[in-house]
Write a structure and sequence with these properties.
- The protein folds into 2 domains: 355 residues, no CATH class; 67 residues, Nucleic acid-binding proteins (OB fold (Dihydrolipoamide Acetyltransferase, E2P), Beta Barrel).
- 36% of the residues lie in helices and 23% in strands.
- The protein is built from 13 helices and 18 strands.
- The protein has a 5-stranded mixed β-sheet with strand order 1-8-7-4-3. Strands 14-15-16-18-17 form a 5-stranded mixed β-barrel. It has a two-stranded parallel sheet with strand order 2-9.
- Strand 14 and strand 15 form a beta hairpin.
- The chain is globular and about 70 Å long.
- It starts with 7 loop residues before the first helix and ends in a 6-residue tail after the last strand.
- The model has no long low-confidence stretch (mean pLDDT 87).
Length: 494
């Protein structure tokens, strides 16, 4: 199959739909959900809702260039003594997607939008997620606002949560905002068109960087992974482009991490249960210690996020180009996250990678179902209403969200590998420098360094482990299954 085959997109879409069904995910909306959707004609009304009017604040969205499902807006206010008030407005999706409705039932099945190489399978119908429940430009929308006062040192000093009516005054994109913040381009027209927005964004950037520094001092891990996005020309796939972190992404990432912590503590203070996102004690800490030792760094015998962050920071400074490969290795050795239901007063497991005890998902309700659950719990807390879920329901939902998120990740990886296989099938027999990214009974995995592509090591895997650098030869690809197989041909390098 030629990688320039004009059927590439259709092939990947077909693969994606089959992968969804195989893993128990629904690629299409049910007739009942669509029938309910037909009856929804307008955004949720603020009439009769106890919500602050915050439309005059210079809210703006910052997201990917092609994002249409806008979940959050941000704005900053300068306070005394170097403090900055950060406000995050999260789309009130629950206002239209009611618990137990047909649309809600479908959303609770998949639990997440699935972003594959050739097609997005949204958790909510696009009429909602990109329109009526999206915080779209120049539209009034109901939102749940998380307000945070950040000290000059980046620490959280005060917070509040409330409902509000908001208005998006500028739809911005990560890449252009970041390039502007770094002085690489002139002020984007979208920023220049709104009075005081440029100054506000610089304030947000300053706050985000101080928050990031504060978290890293506490042991939050500065991990960077390589995310490859297929580049199409029409229906032909031409290349894989790496999505890189930048200053604008740092703004949103740091604000959302802090907002999620505020959310969980707000619920806990009102004796309301929550669904937390946790990463437990690293499953292969001993291998992380060994990898650090191979780089002349001694980690303690027991898991220690501060020590690991120190090691990662040194490695990033020493070899920034290869740091994403080390990050991927550490992420796999840490183990995957999961959702757990928790009652107030129970011992929080926490999130090892973020060095926090209080963490949930609450800021992307158009894309993730746990965020809708958390939003319903928050609104009950704000309005002093009865809790909308039993503990048993939350336990079941947490387990299902973990299972389905894992399934969605596997679908995305499979289709991504199918896209990579389309690019590589004409290069069978060629040799590549590679790094071992996974080693377990079910198989050994390598990532080649020339392209952001991972595959299975079929031969020569007996004496290698995660983190080893080796020479491999491309043996075969299977576009349909997303299989990319390599054989070891060179000696490992430490």
């Amino acid at each position: 199959m030629n990688p320039n085959d004009t059927q590439a997109r259709a092939i990947l879409q077909s693969i994606a739909k089959r992968a969804m069904l195989t893993r128990g995910l629904l690629p299409e909306f049910s007739p009942k959900a669509l029938a309910q959707l037909d009856k929804i004609r307008a955004p949720a009304s603020a009439e009769g809702v106890k919500a602050r009017d915050a439309r005059d604040l210079i809210w703006a969205s910052i997201d990917n260039d092609d994002s249409l499902d806008l979940d959050q807006l941000t704005v900053a206010e300068s306070l005394k003594d170097g403090r900055i008030k950060i406000l995050v407005a999260v789309a009130d999706v629950d206002a239209l997607v009611k618990k137990g409705s047909a649309i809600d039932q479908q959303a609770s099945h998949n639990t997440t939008s699935v972003y594959t190489a050739a097609q997005i399978f949204p958790m909510l119908p696009e009429k909602l997620s990109t329109n009526l429940t999206s915080l779209n430009l120049n539209e009034d929308r109901l939102a749940v606002v998380v307000e945070m006062v950040i000290g000059a040192d980046g620490s959280l000093q005060d917070s509040d949560v409330y409902r509000a009516l908001v208005r998006n005054h500028a739809k911005l994109a990560y890449n252009s905002v970041s390039a502007w913040l770094e002085g690489k381009i002139e002020t984007p027209a979208e920023i220049a068109a709104v009075d005081a927005l440029a100054e506000n964004l610089r304030m947000q950037d300053h706050a985000a960087q101080s928050m990031k520094d504060h978290r890293e001092k506490k042991g939050s891990l500065c991990l960077e992974t390589i995310e490859a996005k297929p580049i199409f020309e029409g229906d032909s796939i031409l290349d894989l482009r790496v999505e890189e972190k930048n200053r604008a992404k740092d703004i949103i990432e740091n604000f959302m991490i802090e907002a999620n912590g505020v959310t969980i503590r707000y619920l806990s203070s009102r004796r309301i249960p929550s669904i937390r996102r946790v990463v437990r004690v690293p499953k292969r800490w001993e291998r992380i210690v060994q990898i650090a030792a191979e780089r002349a760094f001694k980690l303690p015998k027991n898991p220690d996020s501060k020590a690991l962050e120190m090691f990662l920071a040194m490695e990033k400074a020493a070899d920034p180009l290869r740091f994403p490969d080390l990050s991927l290795i550490i992420i796999k050795l840490l183990g995957s996250g999961e959702y757990v239901a928790e009652l107030p007063g129970e011992g929080a497991t926490g999130h090892f990678g973020l060095a926090v005890k209080d963490y949930t998902h609450s800021t992307a309700p158009n894309r993730r179902y746990p965020d809708i659950i958390t939003q319903r719990l928050l609104k009950a807390a704000i309005e002093d209403r009865s809790i909308p879920y039993t503990r048993e329901e939350l336990d079941d939902l947490a387990g299902n969200c973990t299972e389905k998120e894992d399934a969605a990740n596997k679908v995305e990886r499979q289709v991504g590998k199918s896209a990579a296989a389309l690019l590589l099938e004409s290069r069978i027999g060629e040799q590549f420098e590679a790094i071992v990214t996974g080693a377990a009974e079910k198989g050994t995995w390598v990532r080649i360094l020339e392209l952001p592509v991972e595959g299975m090591l079929k031969t020569g895997f007996e004496d290698v482990d995660v983190g080893d650098q080796i020479q491999v030869q491309l043996l075969s690809v299977d576009v349909e299954k997303g299989f990319i197989d390599f054989g070891k041909v060179g000696q490992k390098k430490r």
